[in-house]
Amino acid sequence: MRMGTIHRVVLASGVLVAGLAGPALAESADRTVHTYSANSELLRQGTPHAALFDISTDGQQLFAVGAGGQIMRSDDRGVNWEAEATPVPSAYLGVSTAGSHTVAVGQMGTIAYRAAPGEWKLADSNTLERLFDVAINSQGVGVAVGAFGALMRTADGGRTWVEAAPQWKGVFRDGAGRLGDFFTPSLYAAEISEKGRIWVAGELSLIMTSDDGGSSWTIRNAGGNDDAGIEPTLSAIDVRSDGVGFAVGQEGVVLKTEDFGTRWAALPRPSKANLLGVASKRDGTVVLSGMRDMRISRDGGQTFEPVYGNGIETGWFHGVVAIEGAHALTVGVAGKVLRVIN
What we know:
The protein has 342 residues and is an all-beta fold. The chain has strands spanning 5-10, 16-21, 26-27, 33-34, 38-44, 52-57, 62-66, 71-74, 82-83, 92-98, 101-106, 111-116, 119-123, 131-136, 142-146, 151-154, 162-163, 187-192, 198-202, 206-210, 218-221, 225-226, 229-230, 234-239, 245-249, 254-257, 265-266, 275-280, 286-290, 294-297, 305-308, 317-321, 328-332, 337-341. Strand 8 (71-74) and strand 9 form a beta hairpin.
């Protein structure tokens, strides 16, 4: 037992959910006392096979996407969700919304854009690679990223896409020749600002930026695979409008920038888990989601403490967004939507 009182709630579906409540004081499995841990509140749960992979907000509406072609919308900060008709039944892995533009990406190069309220149309992505993430701003400029170096860009709200990948040769450290001349990194995360700066992250701790809509790229961080070691894959990136940002990934790696992603520094790793999502606020709150672990910082990433409840320690949560009225919302296994509170 980790903290406070257990509240058991039987949902209308008959699912029994155990939620944790009480003071922000907990004892972890290693007997470490956490004085600033946080709780989670279950807002939604689907079936065991109805996983949600990503969530995005423009400050007004929320969109979440997942397995079986799920596209969900919330107009009340995640409390209630409505399904929108989907053009394909395959999984969507990433979603991004800004202004009048909302785009979802997924299996086999699928890209769908929201042409009107409740109406989604397929775009020609010009790739068959699995797409993991997408980022778009209110001007309709955006990028989609995926397996084996797939990198596409749009300037019209996701209706048309063109190839945008740079030349990969020489980007990564390869003193032992293990990568070879034809290595193309899988790209897992993308972010874009309203001013048009794009950030992309992926294998071997790659982070790169573009200031011209994806026409050209500058490498900001890149590792390698040689006798010096193998850098972990980065799975998610979040950069705020004040220039502070975080990138997270395998083995609990957390990188931080304070200059809009020009330079990145590694923070002490708060976990050994594979981290899958990150969101932050100007008040110093940083929420990390991942495999069987979730963490929160209240001091800009200097220290992290656990988030508890609703199957976090036995499941996984992926996309995460900062919202008003709570620390964050996150989505994951069994279609769960959690609100990180306290």
